Prior knowledge:
17% strand, 47% helix, seven-stranded mixed sheet
Amino acid sequence: xxxxxxxxxxxxxxxLHALGAGLGWLAYLLSPTYRRRFAAHAxxxxxxxxxxxxxxxxxxxxxxxxxWLWLRPPHEELGARVRWHGAELIExxxxxxxxxxxxxxxMGCFEVTAQAIAERFAPAHGPITVLYRPARQAWLRTLxxxxxxxxxxxxxxxxxxxxxxxxxxxxxxEAVGLLPDQVPPSGMGVWxxxxxxxxxxxxxxxxxxxxxxxxxxxxxxxxxxxxAGYAVRVRPFGAPLPxxxxxxxxxxxxxxxxxxxxxxxxxxPQQYLWGYHRYKAPRTAPNEPKPPPG
Length: 294
């Protein structure tokens, strides 16, 4: 399998995206559960079928572009492949002398955002630390770990030790990247609305901001048509987070972060992973709250 991945990494991006579109539709057609989840999640957000059907192919492209992103030689920079929109917000955040916490949903190419930040900003401001969960397959774990051992990119495991690494990085004035719409382990989240339905939501983003005083920024990597590359779009976070560590304050913070993710997703719903199992609950998590009667 690793031989195939390495072979794919040498193919042009437009070809990988074309193959990925077919892969996305194949997965969609072969899995009734995936199809139902796709349609149900998009319906909750009020996304019309024409838009969420476009994201079926985009989900496949997300997978097919990974060999190129992972195994591109370290000296081969993204360069003209990335168009920046809002890079001045990153410069302004670093100018404050504080760390920067980048928040991105499961949308577009989130792998490219970390690499683009590392390439452009790490030489002056230090590496970006990204949270990761090691792959179960040994061959895939080796590929991913090698791909992320790039200049300007540091990794933190999804554990208490990884949280400490991220806190230290932010306190040094460096950057950290996080996907706050990822379902957290039991005990590390609260129930908060996401497109109108309670979703078990990580509290880590708010805790990092409260403990370090970092600057939050929203970011996502739009996949451009015909393999032209990516548009990295940066947005201000906007809403302040309330202080406090009790469950009510954490739930309010999680709801604010979820609304920020919803805003990004509505910019380009065709590139959100509607098939992601966003509303699942860890086995020992508290029960999903029920809507009030009437």
